[in-house]
Design brief:
The protein has 136 residues and is mainly alpha-helical. It has one domain. The protein is 55% helix and 3% strand. It has 7 helices and 2 strands; from the N terminus they run H-E-E-H-H-H-H-H-H. Helix 1 (8-22) runs antiparallel to helix 2 and helix 1 (8-22) runs antiparallel to helix 6. The protein is globular and about 35 Å long.
Length: 136
């Protein structure tokens, strides 16, 4: 079994953040001038260009080493069943070659990225359940 360069804690953090991002809806009211208390804060659940969760994910991924970024791409692909453990090193290399300069954008553009990352991590025998329960 290959070794992960990225810690399971970091992957779990990203999975949790990706789930926060996934529940957001498209911006349905781009010219909203209403008060948050008047509209029950529904704008919080919409995806905006300056979305704080998107910014957190971009900053987090931007702070990772190249090896950690390669692992994230390969974990997502492994979880999506685009490759196997035997192809791990090839997935890492190809992922960096194709998406190295924009890993956060690539991951955020993948529907169900949190599920794929979790499934990939589980193939390494790691469950994020303990992190979801507030131990992160």
């Amino acid at each position: 079994m290959p070794n992960l360069s990225i810690s399971s804690e970091k992957v779990a953090y990203l999975i949790i953040k990706a789930r926060e991002f996934d529940v957001q809806d498209a911006n349905s009211d781009p010219d909203s001038g209403s008060n948050g208390s008047d509209d029950k804060m529904v704008d919080v659940l919409e995806d905006h260009a300056d979305n704080p969760v998107r910014q957190e994910i971009r900053a987090f991924v931007g702070g990772l080493s190249e090896d950690e970024k390669a692992d994230l791409i390969a974990l997502m692909q492994l979880g999506r069943e685009d490759g196997t453990m035997e192809e791990w090193e090839a997935m890492r290399a190809q992922g960096l070659r194709e998406h190295g300069g924009r890993v956060a954008a690539y991951l955020l553009g993948q529907p169900m990225v949190s599920d794929y990352l979790e499934d990939g991590l589980e193939q390494f025998g790691v469950s994020i359940e303990e992190f979801e329960n507030g131990r992160l």
